[in-house]
Design a protein that fits this description.
The complex is a heterodimer of chains A (about 190) and B (about 90). Chain A has about 190 residues and is mainly α. Chain A is built from 8 helices and no strands. Classes of the chains: A mainly alpha (about 190), B mainly alpha (about 90).
């Protein structure tokens, strides 16, 4: 039996929230203190890489629709590439701040996949509405890794990147498979 | 708790608020989950659990938010605060 899509989204929201808290922590204590324990500094890129692997599993379950299958496969690939590049940067194998462009590309591809794969008109239901909000959030969030690549080590890029994951978590937690967009306020269709 | 406060006071002026912020992140996340559970009690199917599987009982957004906050508070925050205190002890006054 397949679990409802909303529960997969809530689990993904938990991963996003944990990543958001980790990135906020790094922002608060600074990279020197945060990377004092190697396991801690490897958490975020490892979680991105493992999320990519798990998204392949979701992709396998998405055979009910070709576009859902493609979207989940694209996210899986984007998360794995971003995680792998972040790991290589952390290990010192890649040194240029321009490698943030890979993360920017992964966010752009993920955002586009969110926008494209939701076939319903975006006021159709809460799930459709949220897919579009998440898609545009990720597209706008491309600015943060892009800024990091052009002008590295600015507070605003790190803060924006951390806030993106917290916002993503909130939006994913709000997902329900069959609900009106604003619930009891009755706005939007079902 | 008193020893921890004393240690925090010994740290550099900048490290104490940062340590406090780290210590607050987990509890604030948990509080958000609890407030959500109170605002939308129907999300907690534990309260009406007949015919629900363990998966349905556990995988509910407010409980997941509390779990993430708890995990952060127990696993991530203590090490970060200890490292901040160590940095405060090592830096010149």
């Amino acid at each position: 039996m397949l679990p409802p899509a909303e529960t997969a989204h809530w689990l993904a929201a938990s991963v996003a929230l944990m990543i958001g808290l980790l990135l906020l922590s790094e922002l608060i204590v600074g990279p020197e203190v945060f990377r004092r324990r190697p396991w801690r500094s490897y958490l975020w890129p490892s979680v991105a890489l493992v999320s990519g692997v798990l998204l392949w599993v979701i992709a396998i379950f998405s055979t009910f629709s070709t576009i859902h299958l493609l979207a989940h496969a694209v996210w899986a690939q984007a998360a794995m590439v971003a995680g792998a590049v972040e790991l290589a940067v952390l290990r010192g194998k890649l040194r240029s701040p321009r490698w943030s462009l890979v993360t920017a590309g992964a966010l752009l591809v993920s955002g586009a996949a969110f926008l494209i794969h939701e076939q319903n008109p975006w006021l159709y239901s809460r799930a459709a509405f949220l897919h579009h909000v998440i898609g545009w959030t990720l597209v706008v969030a491309v600015l943060f890794p892009l800024g990091e690549a052009i002008r590295p080590r600015r507070f605003v890029w790190a803060a924006g990147f951390a806030a993106t994951f917290v916002a993503l978590a909130v939006l994913l937690y709000a997902d329900r498979d069959g609900a009106e967009i604003f619930g009891r306020f009755g706005l939007g269709g079902r | 708790m008193r020893q921890r406060r004393a240690r925090l006071r010994r740290g550099t002026p900048r490290s104490a608020p940062r340590a406090l912020a780290i210590q607050l992140l987990g509890p604030l996340t948990m509080l958000a989950g609890i407030v959500w559970a109170i605002a939308q009690p129907y999300r907690i199917v534990l309260l009406e659990h007949h015919g629900k599987s363990l998966y349905e009982l556990v995988v509910q957004p407010p409980l997941l938010v509390v779990a993430v906050g708890l995990l952060y508070a127990l696993v991530i925050a203590p090490g970060l605060v200890a490292d901040l205190e160590a940095e405060g002890d090592a830096s010149p006054r």
